[in-house]
């Protein structure tokens, strides 16, 4: 992306940021997240569009979810030292974008791809069973948390079991070894958990991914390797730092 085009994007975002009702609707369409530089740019855009209190609040949420604990707004206010009204406002913005997910009691049960609530992507990590919103999340979370993980998922086309083991930041075992991930262009105006993440899947082979795509002709995306998804966690780690 050229410098002039990049600057134009940020100017456009600034104007949107000054409009309160549009503050969290920064437009960054069709960002195909193929490498770490694009991921870094995405998180920079994301932070620019959100209130300054977002990062400490998300950190507190994320690491509580990691421990298997649902999160209340009162807890966040005490944990971060941020006023309760501000916490409530930020949480509402994050919930609307589905960067977090709340349960029936309004406690937060998922954030940034990590979930207490069951999904098709199970993660066993540090003696605890958690879940991920999508195939990419299972791997980037391992990198972001610098944790060894055992991933249990299934092929979105055949239903075949998929098992992935990550040790010391590297793929140790993948079954079947032909497993790939289908990813889509990221639209920052779309909801995370219930939107983009629901279109990112494991497939037991490129062939099965292509057959699935034939059945979903309106979806735009491409196949990526598990190694690529693993590397995405570096920017998530920076985002949470």
Q: How would the blueprint of this fold be written?
A:
Elements: H1 3-17, H2 36-49, H3 54-66, H4 73-80, H5 84-96, E1 100-102, E2 108-111, E3 114-115, E4 121-125, E5 128-132, H6 135-144, E6 149-154, E7 161-167, E8 170-175, E9 180-183, E10 201-203, H7 206-215, E11 222-224, H8 226-240
Helix pairs in contact: 2-8, 3-4, 4-5, 6-8
Summarize the structure.
It contains eight helices and eleven strands. With 241 residues, it is an alpha+beta fold.
Polypeptide structure, described:
The chain has 241 residues and is α+β, with helices and mostly antiparallel strands. Helices cover 41% and strands 20% of the residues. The N terminus is likely disordered. It has a domain of 124 residues: Beta-Lactamase (2-Layer Sandwich), CATH 3.30.450.410. The strands form 2 sheets. The protein has an 8-stranded antiparallel β-sheet with strand order 1-2-3-5-4-6-7-8. This is Alkylmercury lyase. It comes from Cytobacillus horneckiae.
Low-confidence stretches: 1-33
| Large-scale geometry | globular
* Helix and strand sequence: HHHHHEEEEEHEEEEEHEH
Distance between the termini: 26 Å
The structural class is alpha+beta
Question: CATH class of the domain at 117-240, anyone?
Answer: Alpha Beta
What is the architecture of the domain at 117-240 at the second tier of CATH? 2-Layer Sandwich
What is the averaged pLDDT score?
83
Q: Biggest sheet: strands, sense, closure? A: 8 strands, antiparallel
Number of strands: 11
Query: Mind telling me the C-alpha Rg?
Result: 18 Å
Strand order of the largest sheet: 1-2-3-5-4-6-7-8
Here the CATH topology of the domain at 117-240 equals Beta-Lactamase
Q: Helical proportion?
A: 40-55%
How large is the share of residues in beta strands? Answer: 15-25%
| H/I helix tally | 8
GO molecular function: alkylmercury lyase activity
InterPro entries: MerB (IPR004927), MerB_lyase_sf (IPR053717)
Organism: Cytobacillus horneckiae
Protein name: Alkylmercury lyase
């Amino acid at each position: 992306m050229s410098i002039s085009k990049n600057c134009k994007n940020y100017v456009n975002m600034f104007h949107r940021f000054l409009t309160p009702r549009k503050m969290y609707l920064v437009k960054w369409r069709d960002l195909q997240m193929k490498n770490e530089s694009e991921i870094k740019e995405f998180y920079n855009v994301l932070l620019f569009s959100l209130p300054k209190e977002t990062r400490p609040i998300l950190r507190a949420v994320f690491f509580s979810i990691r421990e298997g604990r649902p999160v209340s707004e009162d807890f966040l206010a005490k944990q971060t030292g941020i006023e309760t009204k501000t916490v409530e406002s930020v949480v509402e913005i994050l919930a609307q974008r589905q960067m977090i997910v709340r349960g029936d009691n309004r406690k937060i049960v998922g954030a940034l791809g990590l979930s207490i609530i069951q999904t098709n992507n199970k993660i066993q990590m540090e003696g605890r069973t958690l879940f991920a919103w999508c195939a990419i999340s299972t791997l980037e979370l391992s990198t972001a948390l610098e944790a060894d993980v055992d991933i249990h998922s299934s092929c979105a086309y055949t239903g075949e079991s998929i098992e992935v083991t990550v040790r010391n930041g590297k793929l140790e075992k993948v079954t079947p070894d032909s497993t790939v991930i289908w990813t889509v262009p990221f639209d920052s105006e779309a909801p995370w958990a219930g939107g983009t993440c629901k279109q990112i899947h494991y497939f037991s082979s490129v062939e099965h991914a292509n057959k699935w795509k034939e059945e979903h002709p309106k979806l735009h995306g491409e196949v990526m390797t598990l190694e690529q998804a693993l590397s995405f966690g570096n920017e998530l780690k920076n985002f949470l730092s």
